[in-house]
């Protein structure tokens, strides 16, 4: 190192914040995209893949885990600003992890995009096993009043919104960002399985019997694992009641995570991406309880293919944002003309 460069390095070091021991404190990692998964089945690599494994294998195999105090699992980051973690299942579990990570001083999320990912259910009238869905709206299923059907008028809804939750029971995600996501993921070759193909034929709906595809619509967040045609109809009623798009996905985390992010950074840079691994109701020849507790060999199949599909679709968007960071850094660019 020459004398001028050596002197400049010394000046820069002297200007850096110092820790208690007099050593320079590293600048926080500037996060470009944060990928949130809800669970992993075993290890992060080398065994049966859950929601996180394909992301880990694509971006973080050479990365070191970072413990964020209060988060369920470590955070991983690559050298390009792509970070991610397993947050935990359910609204409280996942949102508390997200809050802990956002407050960790080792990260700078001021310009970050957030990709909330995982598996989910779908109504057979709107989707099928293996579908991958971009959320246009997020609706919280639990914030309201409910009563038993026999305690109301026959055939009428048994749900009523509770006052006071207007600001956080429904979120419209940035249409321009969702538009980019659907455009970038068009043409992705989605995997399918023979077991899923056979299972779909138990249903009469055209959507349920179709091959997997990329969809858009409302993602319904509920800690309650609602199931059956009656509650599926109720979820669709809620989506329409709130002015959202058709309910297409039932999941357990996205609205809660979005609220945590919103309070610090808004919602303009949030995407919800889910893969359908089950229908939210049984076929015409089985009861709801039979569908919830199937006999051995009677499950839908297609789980492995669906989690692979989620990563294949989502990574298109992640790689585009990071690869064109100059255009995305300050906000979502306008969609190009078709």
UniProtKB/TrEMBL annotation:
Record key words, sorted: Signal
InterPro entries xref list: Nucleoside_phosphorylase_sf (IPR035994), Pur_nuclsid_perm (IPR009486)
Signal peptide positions (record): 1-26
Official protein name in the record: Purine-nucleoside phosphorylase
């Amino acid at each position: 190192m020459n004398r001028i460069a050596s002197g400049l390095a010394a000046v820069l070091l002297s200007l850096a914040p110092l820790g208690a021991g007099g050593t320079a404190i590293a600048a926080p990692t500037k996060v470009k995209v944060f990928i949130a998964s809800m669970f992993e089945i075993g290890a992060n690599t080398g065994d049966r893949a859950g929601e996180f494994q394909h992301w880990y294998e694509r971006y973080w195999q050479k990365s070191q885990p970072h413990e964020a105090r209060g988060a369920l699992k470590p955070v991983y980051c690559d050298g390009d600003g792509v970070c991610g973690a397993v947050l935990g299942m359910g609204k409280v579990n996942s949102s508390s992890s997200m809050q802990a990570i956002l407050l960790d001083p080792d990260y700078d999320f001021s310009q970050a995009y957030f990709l909330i990912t995982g598996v989910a259910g779908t109504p057979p009238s709107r989707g099928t096993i293996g579908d991958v869905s971009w959320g246009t709206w997020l609706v919280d299923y639990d914030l309201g009043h409910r009563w038993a059907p026999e305690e109301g008028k026959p055939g009428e809804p048994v749900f009523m919104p509770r006052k006071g939750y207007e600001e956080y029971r429904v979120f419209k995600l940035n249409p321009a960002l969702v538009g980019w996501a659907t455009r970038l993921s068009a043409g992705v070759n989605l995997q399918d399985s023979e077991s899923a193909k056979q299972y779909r034929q138990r249903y009469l709906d055209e959507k349920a019997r179709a091959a997997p595809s990329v969809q858009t619509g409302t993602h319904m967040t509920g800690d309650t694992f609602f199931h059956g045609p009656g509650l599926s109809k109720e979820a669709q009623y809620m989506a329409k009641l709130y002015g959202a798009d058709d309910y297409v996905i039932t999941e357990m985390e996205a609205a809660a995570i979005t609220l945590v992010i919103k309070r610090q950074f808004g919602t303009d840079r949030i995407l919800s991406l889910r893969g359908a691994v089950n229908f939210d109701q049984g076929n015409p020849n089985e009861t709801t309880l039979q569908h919830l507790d199937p006999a051995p060999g009677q499950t839908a199949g297609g789980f492995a293919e669906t989690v692979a599909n989620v990563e294949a679709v989502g990574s298109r968007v992640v790689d585009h944002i990071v690869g064109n960071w100059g255009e995305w850094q300050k906000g979502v660019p306008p969609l190009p003309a078709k």
